[in-house]
Amino acid sequence: MANLKLSHIYKVYDNGHKAVNDFSIDIADREFIVFVGPSGCGKSTTLRMIAGLETITAGDLFIGDTLVNDMEPKDRDIAMVFQSYALYPHMSVYENMAFGLRNRKMPEAEIKERVMKAAKILDIVDYLERKPKQMSGGQRQRVALGRALVRDPKVFLLDEPLSNLDAKLRATMRAEITALHKSLNTTFIYVTHDQVEAMTMGTRIVVMKNGYVQQIDTPMNLYNSPYNKFVAGFIGTPQMNFFNVTLKRNGDTVKIAFAGDDSITVPYEVVCKIDGNYLDGEKPAVFGIRPEHIDIDRDESGLKFIVTNVERLGNETILYGKLGDQSGEFTVKDEGNSIIVKVIDRDDIAVGDIVYAHPKLNKLHFFDAESEVTLIHKIPLYNTVEAVISGGSIRALGADTTLPQAFGQAPSGPVELIVPPQAIVPGQDFSLRVARIENADGQSLAYLQNGDRYLFALVGGNVREGDEYGFSILYDKITLRANGEDIAVPVSTEVSLEGRFSKKETREEKERVLHFFYNIGSYTIEAEKENGYKINSIDKDHCYDYTYRYAVDMDKVRIVTDGEPGLDVKVLEKLDYIKVCYARVQTEDGQTFLIKIDRDNTGSQLRIAFDGADVSVYSTRIDMKLC
Ligand code: ADP
After folding, report:
1. Does 331 lie in the same domain as 394?
2. What is the tens place of the pLDDT at every residue in 477-506?
3. Span 96-105, pLDDT tens digits
4. Do 138 and 42 belong to one domain?
5. Residue 254 is part of which domain span?
6. What is the pLDDT of residues 66-87, one digit of tens each?
7. 374 lines ligand 1 (CB under 6 A)
8. pLDDT value at position 326?
9. Residue 41 CB less than 6 A away from ligand 1
10. Do 275 and 359 share a domain, yes or no?
11. Total structural domains in the chain?
12. Residue with the nearest Cα to atom 25 of ligand 1?
């Protein structure tokens, strides 16, 4: 039994191919985690790094509390099952299962006990004397599982174990492996390109694409709330329908306009979490709806389409169709006009019929046309607030407040404030009525009535619907936009500096001892020894020639006195955001960044310092976190 932690794991193959990028996950004891994604997305590489069959380029892998990056596979207490069973053909099933244990010099009596126990669990007791070639694919895969089972490992790793089996056997084995996981109470990590396997087996699923994690979530959350268009399209069969659309708000309704002349109208409430900028009738968006979330009728309302193909699968019927173009013809070449609908118990629809689609209102998905990220988040990423700046004050949300000095360069006139819910805190500056409270991932999300829109804020559990909610805005966490241009952006909570890496050898009691250092200008910080070795092992001897990016949480940066070691910086300007104050500073070699200062600090020259243990190191050569 074991939990696993993967922290910023990267894999760069010797040919320079970056197969896995910044993979992080905490896997709890007894979870069944599935890595899923198209071929080549980095699933097997990640699994093989966990197994120890592939070196980890950067990042930390923990099994339990032990860092195992450099531990031999055989010492990791894991067992791996491969797609190609990898059984020894000349050995009997019993010998195949006993082989690994014999190598470990386990007493014969215990081997027998373990093999018999595993054989019983897997229902292969009658086959123990057979050779693999005398068995079916399913039986062989059971032997491969048995060989892993007898080792009683902390973690089971399974790499596409069912892909050599036919569809019917795969379904049976899926259920058997799920049952095995339940009975063993062991952590399972399972790689597959098959989303049905992922959905039916995983307690959580990691969806990957091109070496990057797209979303880590439970099967139902992936299905109901895909983070982006890729996840939306990958999970679910037939695939979700996607259409290029624009959205236009008109009072209580929003019109979804399709590429042709078609449109459907939905209540504003069902899309109220989409930022207002997308509801202007111009900004392109992608509308997604699953085939099973569309009702069909012939009543000449809804989305008109012609049926081009019908697949009858018993109670389920899959309709393939085409939307019309501007002239109402159904001959548009554009890919975006295809529609697939899954209907239950309907055999009255035939090829050539013209029917009308009605998307279920609580099942609509929208994505940004460019980034393809969802536009409906459980907790909206930001609110767009209209404001007016005049004479040192800012008018927004029905109140006049002081314009923060940091926004001094903003022009008078209308501006937009891009305010994340996290930047709204209890206070006295504004007050709005709480129209609704919703539980979003364990937090209380308040819909604050802002004219005919909502302002989304995270509030304490004591706030109730109907309350007047008093709040302030943390101006250092917002974007200020005038005439479409960003005048101010959120202050990063991290200080980022470029510098070099060096080592020094000393002799301590006749022992050679290596010390590693981060050098930023003339400021030298001793690195944690293990991090020094990490950088050394990743970049080899070149590490003393490369430039690195050193990142430190802003709260870990201290202002020190002249007598102490530190990095000298010149204060370029002071930025007062009312609740917090920053200084824009510059190093002697010209790097500028922000630090937090006390409002009464008037120094024009400061010295800052931080600890080696608080520094994260990034490669500037290949975009990668090294430690
Ligand atoms: P998946 O299991 O998702 O199909 P893999 O982890 O096997 O993907 O591979 C991820 C990427 O790394 C692929 O583009 C593959 O071609 C590449 N790759 C795999 N092994 C090696 C290797 N030994 N050397 C170079 N590139 C490799």
Report:
1. no
2. 999 999 989 999 999 999 999 999 999 999
3. 999 989 988 8
4. yes
5. 241-368
6. 999 999 998 998 998 887 767 8
7. no
8. 54
9. yes
10. yes
11. 4
12. 13
Residues 115 and 55 in one domain: yes
Q: For 250-282, how does the pLDDT look when each residue is reduced to its tens digit (9 = 90+)?
A: 999 999 999 877 899 999 999 999 999 999 999
Q: What is the CATH number of the domain that holds 143?
A: 3.40.50.300
- Choose one of 343, 368, 393: the last residue of a domain: 368
104 part of a folded domain: yes
423: Cβ contacts below 8 Å, ≥ 6 apart: 473, 474, 475, 477, 478
Q: How far apart are CA 583 and CA 379, in angstroms?
A: 31
Q: Measured from the CA of 47, which atom of ligand 1 is nearest?
A: 6
Question: Do 169 and 219 sit in the same domain of this protein?
Answer: yes
Of 305, 339, 368, which residue constitutes the final position of a domain? 368
CATH number reported for the structural domain that contains residue 361 in this entry: 2.40.50.140
Does residue 387 share a domain with residue 477? yes
Most distant CA pair in the chain, distance = 91
255/318 same-domain check: yes
The answer, yes or no, to whether residue 234 has pLDDT greater than 80, is yes
Q: Are 212 and 231 in contact (CB under 8 A)?
A: no
Q: Is residue 610 part of a domain?
A: yes
Paired with 485 in beta bridges are: 482
Domain for residue 378, yes or no?
A: no
Spatial CB neighbours of 128, under 8 Å, sequence gap ≥ 6: 92, 93, 94, 115, 119
Position 332 scores a pLDDT of: 45
Atom of ligand 1 nearest to the CA of 159: 2
Provide the residue type at 231 as one letter.
Answer: V
What is the rounded average pLDDT of the residues 163-178? 85
Residue 220: phi, psi to the nearest 5? -70, -35
Determine, yes or no, domain membership for 196. Answer: yes
Ligand 1 neighbourhood includes 40 CB (under 6 angstroms): yes
Residue 331 pLDDT level (bands cut at 50, 70, 90): low
Taking the centre of ligand 1 as the mean of its atom positions, its distance from the CA of residue 48, in whole angstroms, is 11
CB 20 near ligand 1, within 6 Å: no
Please write down the HEC assignment for all residues of 374-415: ECCCCCCCCEEEEEEEECCEEEECCEEEECCHHHCCCCCEEE
Q: How confident is the model at residue 466 (pLDDT cuts 50, 70, 90)?
A: very high
